[in-house]
Automatic annotation (TrEMBL):
<feature type="transmembrane region" description="Helical">
    <location>
        <begin position="266"/>
        <end position="288"/>
    </location>
</feature>
<feature type="transmembrane region" description="Helical">
    <location>
        <begin position="295"/>
        <end position="319"/>
    </location>
</feature>
<dbReference type="GO" id="GO:0005886">
    <property type="term" value="C:plasma membrane"/>
</dbReference>
<dbReference type="InterPro" id="IPR020846">
    <property type="entry name" value="MFS_dom"/>
</dbReference>
<dbReference type="InterPro" id="IPR005829">
    <property type="entry name" value="Sugar_transporter_CS"/>
</dbReference>
<feature type="transmembrane region" description="Helical">
    <location>
        <begin position="131"/>
        <end position="155"/>
    </location>
</feature>
<protein>
    <recommendedName>
        <fullName>Major facilitator superfamily (MFS) profile domain-containing protein</fullName>
    </recommendedName>
</protein>
<feature type="transmembrane region" description="Helical">
    <location>
        <begin position="44"/>
        <end position="64"/>
    </location>
</feature>
<feature type="domain" description="Major facilitator superfamily (MFS) profile">
    <location>
        <begin position="7"/>
        <end position="427"/>
    </location>
</feature>
<dbReference type="GO" id="GO:0046943">
    <property type="term" value="F:carboxylic acid transmembrane transporter activity"/>
</dbReference>
<feature type="transmembrane region" description="Helical">
    <location>
        <begin position="7"/>
        <end position="32"/>
    </location>
</feature>
<feature type="transmembrane region" description="Helical">
    <location>
        <begin position="398"/>
        <end position="423"/>
    </location>
</feature>
<feature type="transmembrane region" description="Helical">
    <location>
        <begin position="230"/>
        <end position="254"/>
    </location>
</feature>
<dbReference type="InterPro" id="IPR005828">
    <property type="entry name" value="MFS_sugar_transport-like"/>
</dbReference>
<dbReference type="Pfam" id="PF00083">
    <property type="entry name" value="Sugar_tr"/>
</dbReference>
<dbReference type="InterPro" id="IPR036259">
    <property type="entry name" value="MFS_trans_sf"/>
</dbReference>
<keyword id="KW-0472">Membrane</keyword>
């Protein structure tokens, strides 16, 4: 257990950095537009820049870590994050800022591959779900809250300096764990099933961990082919999740907060403290008790219901006995706020904390190809999400926020059906056992 929680704390700071940087940009993008010329297209591309970088780096880091080990690559990811976040503060034009976001994204993409794999491979099977939810969902949410707090402080600075400080401070959490990650031991499963290292094994033994070596003799390609069905499912689920969740995370503090009559910072605080964190705590308590599938399906059912209600309120408030206005006011604002918060709570109970934690691919693939499996899932998700995110401002202008919210409700429903029929339960199961041919069951 000592090794598991040490891995969680070190791995979680990378995800904290991602949550901070994603939310911080959404909170200061209007300030940036006062100094760097932006329109719907360029602002969308700027936000999506980190996603493009993540898609590129995920595949590179995944392949290398499957052949050379997780430890060798760990620490390089947060180094890239540190440099990218720091450079944002000194960007003088759109090109420089976009490049900084791209570099930051490359670190994030690498972390989204390495951190879930490392925590999954080091965790006890009875506590693996809890460890992964804390590493990703909780730490990501805390990063978002800190971003809101730092943005609040920046209001006391000149406008030209404030947004630079907010973005630049995103380098600190990543910088704080570079050395710790470089010193982290190789994962237990990689040592036992892929590439045993005498020095590492002796170090573990001195820490009281007596590891049995049972090297997987199957080829990398064979294992990858056998894992491909679950890789595809994991990628589809992550893409569908991020289609709405990342858009809400980035544009929620701007578009939705404005529609509800809230400031972006207040929206962030309320969303995290009254819906995100409570939902995550429920997930932490239940994920290793009732399983991943039930929580995802229940969560998505709630997301679909409350997004449909929110969509109807935006499109036709007369259904709720309210007049049509450009923004929700009075009773309409209370209803809209309630619908959105309930959607956020149900998402945090299941989809956000499990699918968004990158849990699917690592739990459903072989150790020999686990990082590559996660890398494919991350790369597909980041590339698809970047496209949707870059188009969102234009789509809202064309079809309206109500229609977009309705589309996201249907995405939640489709995702729930995919999980019900195609994803096996992984609760309390040994990782490689889940993927063995003929043993994976939908239960």
């Amino acid at each position: 257990m000592k090794l598991t929680w040490r891995s969680v704390l070190i791995a979680g700071m990378g995800v904290f950095t991602d949550g901070y940087n994603l939310y911080s940009l959404s909170l200061v993008i209007y300030s940036i537009s006062n100094f760097i010329r932006l329109n719907n297209v360029t602002s969308g591309l700027l936000v999506a820049g980190s996603y493009f970088g993540a898609a590129i780096s995920a595949l590179i880091f995944g392949l290398i870590s499957d052949f050379q080990g997780r430890k060798r690559m760990y620490g390089i990811d947060v180094t890239l994050m540190t440099i990218g976040a720091f450079l944002q503060a000194f960007s003088q034009n759109y090109g420089e800022l976009f490049f900084s976001r791209l570099l930051l994204g490359m670190g994030i993409g690498a972390d989204y591959v390495l951190s879930p794999v490392i925590v999954a491979e080091n965790a006890d099977k009875d506590k693996r779900g809890k460890a992964m939810v804390i590493t990703f969902a909780v730490m990501w949410g805390l990063g978002a809250v800190v971003a809101a707090f730092v943005t609040q402080i920046s209001y006391f600075l000149p406008a030209s300096l404030g947004w630079r400080m907010v973005l630049g401070l995103g380098a600190i959490p990543a910088l704080s764990v570079i050395l710790a990650r470089r010193k982290l031991s190789e994962t237990l499963l990689f040592l036992s099933k892929v590439k045993p290292d005498i020095k590492e094994l002796n170090k573990l033994k001195s820490d009281g961990v007596d590891l049995k070596v049972n090297v997987d003799e199957s080829s990398f390609l064979i294992r990858l082919i056998k894992s491909m069905r679950f890789i595809i499912i994991a990628a589809i689920l992550w893409v569908l999740y991020d289609i709405y969740s990342s858009t809400f995370a980035i544009y929620g503090p701007i578009t939705i907060a404005h529609n509800l009559g809230l400031s972006p910072i207040m929206f962030t605080y309320v969303a995290q403290f009254f819906a995100g964190i409570p939902g995550q705590l429920i997930c932490i308590f239940l994920v290793d008790r009732i399983g991943r599938r039930k929580l995802i399906v229940l969560g998505y059912a709630g997301v679909a219901l409350w997004l449909v209600m929110y969509s109807l309120l935006l499109i036709n408030p007369f259904i709720f006995g309210l007049p049509k206005t450009s923004t929700l006011e009075g009773t309409g604002a209370v209803l809209g706020f309630s619908f959105y918060m309930l959607n956020y709570l149900f998402s945090a109970m299941g989809p956000a904390s499990i699918i968004g934690s990158g849990m699917i691919a690592p739990e459903l693939s072989f150790t020999k190809v686990r990082a590559t499996s996660q890398a494919i899932s991350v790369a597909v998700d980041r590339a698809a999400s970047a496209t949707v995110i870059s188009l969102f401002p234009s789509l809202v202008n064309i079809v309206g926020l109500g229609v977009m919210v309705g589309i996201y409700a249907s995405v939640a429903l489709i995702s729930s059906l995919i999980v019900m029929f195609f994803v096996p339960e992984t609760r309390t199961r040994e990782l490689d056992f889940i993927t063995e041919g003929g043993r994976s069951k939908i239960n």
